[in-house]
Give the backbone structure.
Amino acid sequence: MKNYFRSLPVLPFLLLLSVTLISSCLSEHSGKPRSSGKTSVILIVTNNKSQWEGNIGKQIRDYFGQEMIGLPQPEATFLFYNISSKNLDKVYKKFHNIFIVDINPEFKKTLVETKENLWSWPQRVIKITAPTEEAFAEKFEEQKQAYMRLFDELERERIIISFEMANDLDISNKVEKTFQFYLGVPGGFSIAEAEKDFIWLRHTVAKVKQDVELGIMIYSSPYKDTLDFSPDSIISRRNEITKKFVHGPTFGSYMKVADSFVKPVFKLADDFIVDYTVETRGLWDLKNDFMGGPFLSYTFVDEKSNRLITLDGYVYFPNGRKTKYIRQLEGIFHTLRMVD
């Protein structure tokens, strides 16, 4: 297919020869506690506080704390909690994301180690042992994209695990009957609209100051050619769907893509279940009203039926941090399984 999108730089084969990658399977979870920590938080372990307050900490914060794409207000991709290595006890070892920096002059070369489910599950531990701070900085800069990807995948895994015990089987069965694929929809969602090629699910999360609404739209159409994956086609198709089905509280109001000032971002989702999938992140608002928020979608072709499918999720939480809820939608969408 023609590539309309600038793809991400090719990651090294999970950190090439400098990484010791040790995978663990479900059987190894036995006897290990469930991991702890809030969504999108990394425990940073340094030899001492001055490392965190100096160049090492700045490099880590600048990269892992970069703004998440597609949100209306700036929000860091990850937040941080720092401790010194001498305080890494069994309580902290339960944390789900752990990044350890060890500056050790006895090492001649920098060593990167990464392990799944080392002290708890699900868990991702990455440790960089370097002879100097300069050596750490060089290795971190070289492989930081792979580190980010590992932590992103762990966040998604935690969400999937937390939801899979409470899936709404009736809604999942309705999705499967309509579109011939499985999607793990957690409890709390209800069907707001359902037609032959369209399902709209809604879930309200009660909060003290402002409720949160999560929405999931699934829609399909006959696949014509690769132009269906162009940014213009993806956006116009979404606007057509939301104008028809997703109306606001004011008469004549409806959802649309808010692209006047901030353009949506498109990329190939190379870690999605379907090989060729376009991920879109952007903002939505209401025509003739004042509501708005972020959305996330995945567009792909079901080759068996030759239909173009879009999984589309949105968040409405005007006064709160939205990263958590975008990650939840991402986790739900990654439960997709095509039905034979």
